[in-house]
């Protein structure tokens, strides 16, 4: 009997230590990805696939003399050029003056690359998967599985050699791919790309004053939050919606953001929409229209909307 | 000695049986053989037979005759294919081919099944392609409704309904833009907070 229990505990130990090792290997890969996108000089193109919709971007990054520069250019949409120099992000518009924010990353890029690892470790388990060939390169799969089942999962493929991300799939809880981020071209160089060098020198507008915070006391209450989410205190004003907006909350789990808008009821029915991994849920009840926007499942959005009183 | 020989040889020519020793000596001694042949000839003459007995060296004569025979080259008058066809046709009716043919068909089906399954198993990869359940073709750069509930649209109000729908989409687009703006600004707010706390170098760089 003693021997049997000894064997059992040995097996349990072995299983646990292998699991722990797999987890460690996963996070080591994750570190590799985060450092690759921050440290290398690169010139890449990527596409974002949302159902039948495809957006193409060019993404350049350079680091020299302690300074960092990053340029994101939409190739097939009439979007804005986004440029980041160290901690300032410039939205360069053609017909209006540039919009400047302070951030150490471009929010339009996958937040997974830039969020501190501790934030992501709170929400996800990382497990290294199998290797495969992608775009002629050997790619290693890294699965980020949500600890809370309602959160979307990430499958990340990274280049074996450099650790550069090659593809990210955002999967629903049913393991359906909702959105895919895919690198189509990648060039890592020792020197900073030439056009970034000139942008490094370019004269750019100074950041404006800090964004006005909404002082409006909301007349409603949000009684339910999804697991891991907290309310962002004092979200910025939304001038263009000032007239119609009754209440507004911005929720964040460190990696994803969800907006909850409350407006006067329209005569339209309760509906759900999806733009890639972003769910847009509109609920009409009690003379109120509650709109939930964010990368959450429709069920979570429904619960959030139901939590507004 | 010789008369003794002649006695059993003469008897042999009259179809009397030979002992084993006598047969052995006859086979080895050519003189005895020619004597026997002579006795046979005498006997044949006495019995007035027209043909003589078989000569001792008849094999040599036959060999010579075969050599003298002209050589004929045998040619196939049918092509290889015809021969194969004919042999297959013959074999198909044979008892052994039918089970073999059945086996071959079974093997073919099994092979198809194996390859078919492999093809089928490759499909989960395709299922990863972004075809979410609720994804629909966006109209005017925005997603269209996916869960129409509660209302049924009568034709009479279709146009108004469509108008309202467009308005709704416009409103939702505005909300989506507001959400994106909030995400941008929130990062800024967080960074600003971090910087206020840590007062790190990059900000000072920017301020120069």
Structural commentary:
- The complex is a heterodimer of chains A (309) and B (208).
- Chain A is α+β, with helices and mostly antiparallel strands and 309 residues long.
- Chain A has 2 domains: 15-201, Lipoprotein localisation LolA/LolB/LppX (outer membrane lipoprotein receptor (LolB), chain A, Clam); 230-306, Phosphorylase Kinase, domain 1 (2-Layer Sandwich).
- Chain A has helices spanning 2-39, 117-123, 194-201, 298-306; strands spanning 41-50, 53-64, 67-74, 81-85, 88-92, 99-102, 124-134, 137-146, 153-159, 165-171, 177-189, 230-231, 245-252, 257-264, 271-275, 278-285, 288-294.
- In chain A, the strands form 2 sheets. In chain A, strands 6-5-4-3-2-1-11-10-9-8-7 form an 11-stranded antiparallel sheet, sandwiched between helices.
- The model of chain A has no long low-confidence stretch (mean pLDDT 84).
- In chain B, helix 1 crosses helix 3.
- Chain B contains 9 helices and no strands.
- Chain B has helices at residues 2-13, 20-28, 30-46, 58-68, 80-92, 97-121, 123-127, 158-198, 201-207.
- Helix content of chain B is 67%, strand content 0%.
- Among the domains of chain B are: 2-58, no CATH class; 155-200.
- The chains are: A alpha+beta (309), B mainly alpha (208).
- Chains A and B meet through strand 5, strand 11, strand 14, strand 15 and strand 16 of A and helix 8 and helix 9 of B.
């Amino acid at each position: 009997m003693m021997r049997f229990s000894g064997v059992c505990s040995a097996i349990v130990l072995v299983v646990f230590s292998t699991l722990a090792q797999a987890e460690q290997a996963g996070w080591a890969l994750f570190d590799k990805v985060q450092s690759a996108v921050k440290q290398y000089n690169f010139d890449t193109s990527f596409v974002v696939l949302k159902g039948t919709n495809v957006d193409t971007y060019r993404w350049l990054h350079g680091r020299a003399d302690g300074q960092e520069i990053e340029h994101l250019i939409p190739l097939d949409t009439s979007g804005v050029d986004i440029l980041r120099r160290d901690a300032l992000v410039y939205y360069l518009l053609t017909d209006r003056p540039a919009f400047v924010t302070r951030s150490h990353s471009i929010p339009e890029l996958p937040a997974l690359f830039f969020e501190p690892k501790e934030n992501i470790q709170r929400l996800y388990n990382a497990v290294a998967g199998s290797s495969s060939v992608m775009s002629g390169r050997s790619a290693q799969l890294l699965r980020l599985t949500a600890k809370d089942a309602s959160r979307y999962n990430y499958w990340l493929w990274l280049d074996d050699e450099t650790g550069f991300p090659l593809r990210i799939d955002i999967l629903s809880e049913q393991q359906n791919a909702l959105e895919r981020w895919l690198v189509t071209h990648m060039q890592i160089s020792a020197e900073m790309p030439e056009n970034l060098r000139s942008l490094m020198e370019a004269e750019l507008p100074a950041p404006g004053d800090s964004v006005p915070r909404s002082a409006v006391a909301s007349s409603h209450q949000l009684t339910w939050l999804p697991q891991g989410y907290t309310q962002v205190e004092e979200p910025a004003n939304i001038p263009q919606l000032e007239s119609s907006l009754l209440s507004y909350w911005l929720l964040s789990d460190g990696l994803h953001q969800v907006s909850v808008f409350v407006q006067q009821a329209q005569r339209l029915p309760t509906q759900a929409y999806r733009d890639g991994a972003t769910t847009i849920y509109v609920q009409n009840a009690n003379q109120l229209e509650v709109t939930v926007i964010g990368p959450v499942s429709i069920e979570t959005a429904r619960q959030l909307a139901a939590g507004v009183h | 000695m010789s008369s003794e020989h002649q006695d059993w040889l003469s008897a042999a020519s009259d179809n009397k049986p030979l002992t084993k020793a006598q047969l052995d000596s006859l086979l080895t001694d050519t003189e005895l053989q020619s004597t026997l042949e002579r006795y046979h000839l005498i006997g044949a003459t006495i019995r007035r037979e027209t043909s003589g007995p078989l000569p001792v060296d008849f094999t040599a004569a036959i060999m010579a005759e075969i050599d003298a025979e002209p050589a004929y080259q045998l040619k196939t008058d049918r092509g290889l294919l015809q021969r194969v066809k004919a042999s297959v046709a013959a074999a198909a009716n044979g008892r052994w081919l039918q089970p073999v043919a059945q086996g071959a068909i079974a093997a073919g089906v099994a092979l198809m099944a194996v390859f078919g399954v492999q093809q089928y198993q490759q499909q989960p990869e395709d299922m990863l392609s972004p075809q979410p359940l609720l994804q629909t073709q966006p109209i005017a750069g925005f997603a269209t409704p996916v869960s129409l509930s509660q209302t049924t649209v009568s034709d009479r109000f279709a146009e108004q309904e469509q108008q309202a729908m467009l308005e709704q989409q416009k409103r939702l687009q505005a909300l989506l833009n507001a959400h994106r703006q909030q995400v941008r600004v929130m990062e800024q707010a967080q960074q600003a907070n971090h910087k206020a706390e840590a007062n790190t170098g990059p900000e000072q760089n920017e301020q120069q």
